[in-house]
Every structure is written in C-alpha cells, then in structure tokens.
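Batch manifest, entry 17 of 40.
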Amino acid sequence: MAKIAVFDINCKQVSEKELVDAVFNTEVKEYLLHDMVRYQLAARRQGTAKVKGRSEVRGGGKKPYRQKGTGNARQGTPTAPNHVGGGVAFGPTPRDYSFKLNRKVKQSALKSALSVRFKNECMTVVNALDLEKISTKGFAEVLKRFELEKALIVIDESNQNLELSARNLPFVKVLRAEGVNVYDILKYPRLVMTEAAIDRIEGALAK
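Output type: structure tokens
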C-alpha cells in the first residue's frame, strides 16, 4: 500500500497514512476523466436557449407583394427566415444536455482523478482542520503555511468554522467527502484531505 505524510494544522508532520492502492494509486484512465468532466458540465447547462421559428413569429398571412410583375423572386410570407424580422431556421430550442454514465464508470473516473493528484505529489493530508472561530484571515494563514494558493479542501463532515472561513477565498473550495467529484479535483491544482475524509472515500470506492 502507498503511504503519504500526515500533517497537523501547523504544517508539522505527525504521522504517515497508508492509502488503498485501488483508490489512490490505480491506473489513470484519461479518457474516463474526459467523459466525466463532459458529463458534469453537460448536467450544469440550463438548456433554455430559444428563438422563434417561422410559424411562431407574429405576422404573416399576406404575401409581402404580388406574385408576378415586380421583378423580384416570389415570396409567400414575411415571416420566412430570409426576411428581416422573420423566423430563424434551425435555431436553438429548450433541451436537456445531460447524458448517462454508468456507476462503475463514474467510480473509476474518480479513482483516476485521485490517483493523478497522489502520483503527481499534489495531495496533502492533514489530521484535522479545526479552527477555533470563523476567520477568513486565520484560514488564509493556514493555507500560507502549506504554501497553497489554489486548492480543493475535502473534509469528512460538516465544519461550519472552516466552511464559512473559506467561502470568501476566491481560489479555495471546501467539499465534504460525499460531494467530492472529478471536475473539482482536476480544476484545483492542489488537493487537501483530512484523514477522516480519506477513510470515508476509501470505504465508498474500495469495494
């Protein structure tokens, strides 16, 4: 099993933790990472874009000019797409952009994302992230000790002091273990996890 150093909140190493190879040291499948990021971004799209077609534009019913004798091409209605103010041909309509991915594909993609961060030495493990009070400045100092600017923080359960302290930092995101996902892991260059969060994730994925 792979091992990783465990630090306290003051950035001092206190122990080592063994990681399950099937979760943090598995083969990285880039095509699954690509599929999973597409899946997440597609699910976020509202799909509410809409334009009017020729049958929905107000007006029409009368020919813009007579059929013959004008020298122009014959026209049946001013709502046709070739007229200014007419309907749009093949324009967007409300739709659902989401698509299906199998559960095993999602799990394998998450394992690959976690393995990328571990293998590239972009993963930091802390024994706990307990702040005495809500303080953005105080949490920023913690990140400075670890030399972190952009990071995804993964905790095991609700931690109001930490979550409220981090919400005003523009390049930091705090997630609970059940919400960890491929897109956020890849979006942030550094991954910080508590020991308890690792245990929960391994329990869910190492089956």
